[in-house]
């Protein structure tokens, strides 16, 4: 018994179905090719985008360095009353940035740890700490700074100027600062909200409130 050939109508129906599938597959192939071309365009931009982001990051870093130079130079001059200029040198190696510090006195470079280096370091370290803390997420880090003997290298007559700088910066940046010092409390009057003296006694340490100013943070 031999199989009878399919009728022309049935063959036509199958042909139409197959042709429809062919057109669908061609349309899908065309769509995928267009998607691939778009992806290749985006990939071709990757190098330029990376270079642009690197340049933007470097420019932002340079702007921050200039801001540090400007603000900390002002702090040095106001506290020490000397013609000092902070200079920050940047370097980029292996996709990492590094900085180094020195001061210039009348145009001459000077190591911050020589001459009045201790006093210079006192001022710079506070400024850098405040700046570093401002970059932290306030939701995870409280703006509270402890300065332990941060004025140790300053002459007593320079302490009030130093405390004023800290006071003004803390107010501007909304920081709470606890400063420990061996200097006479009189140098902190007018700037500290509260001054507490720790006094040794035969039984241990006694605390005594020397000055307790009203809170004027909202002024």
What is the string of helix and strand elements? Answer: HEEEHEHEEE
CATH topology (level 3) name of the largest domain: Rossmann fold
Report the principal-axis shape.
elongated
Number of domains: 2
* Secondary structure: helix percent: 40-55%
Distance from N terminus to C terminus (CA atoms, Å) equals: 109 Å
What's the number of extended β-strand segments?
A: 7
Based on secondary structure, the structural category is: alpha+beta
Give the neighbour order of strands across the main sheet: 1-2-3
CATH architecture verdict of the largest domain: 3-Layer(aba) Sandwich
CATH class of the largest domain: Alpha Beta
The poorly predicted ranges are: none
**How does the major sheet shape up?**
3 strands, antiparallel
Radius of gyration: 35 Å
Say which CATH homologous superfamily of the largest domain is assigned: P-loop containing nucleotide triphosphate hydrolases
> Total number of helical segments?
3
Content of β-strand: 15-25%
How confident is the prediction overall: mean pLDDT? 85
Walk me through the structure.
The chain has 219 residues and is of the alpha+beta class. It folds into two domains: 9-110; 116-219, P-loop containing nucleotide triphosphate hydrolases (Rossmann fold, 3-Layer(aba) Sandwich). It has three helices and seven strands. It has helices at residues 8-80, 117-134, 159-173, and strands spanning 84-93, 96-105, 108-110, 144-148, 176-180, 194-201, 204-212. The chain has a three-stranded antiparallel sheet with strand order 1-2-3, with helices on one face. A two-stranded parallel ribbon has the order 4-5. α1 (8-80) runs antiparallel to α2. The longest helix has 73 residues, at 8-80. It is elongated, with a radius of gyration of 35 Å. The chain starts with 7 loop residues before the first helix and ends in a 7-residue tail after the last strand.
């Amino acid at each position: 018994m031999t199989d009878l050939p399919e009728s022309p109508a049935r063959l036509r129906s199958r042909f139409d179905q197959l042709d429809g599938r062919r057109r669908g597959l061609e349309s899908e192939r065309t769509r995928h090719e267009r998607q691939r071309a778009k992806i290749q365009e985006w990939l071709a931009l990757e190098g330029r985008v990376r270079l642009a982001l690197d340049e933007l990051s470097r420019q932002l870093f340079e702007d921050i360095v200039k801001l540090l130079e400007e603000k900390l130079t002002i702090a040095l001059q106001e506290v020490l009353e000397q013609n000092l200029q902070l200079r920050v040198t940047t370097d980029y190696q292996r996709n990492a940035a590094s900085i180094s510090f020195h001061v210039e006195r009348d145009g001459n470079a000077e190591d911050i740890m020589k001459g009045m280096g201790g006093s210079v370091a006192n001022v710079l370290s506070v400024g850098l700490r405040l700046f570093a803390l401002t970059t932290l997420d306030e939701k995870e880090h409280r703006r509270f700074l402890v300065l332990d003997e941060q004025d140790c290298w300053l002459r007593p007559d320079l302490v009030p100027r130093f405390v004023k700088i800290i006071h003004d910066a803390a107010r501007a940046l909304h920081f709470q600062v606890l400063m420990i010092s061996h200097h006479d409390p009189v140098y902190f009057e007018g700037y500290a909200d509260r001054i507490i003296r720790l006094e040794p006694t035969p039984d241990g340490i006694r605390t005594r409130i020397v000055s307790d100013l009203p809170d004027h943070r909202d002024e």
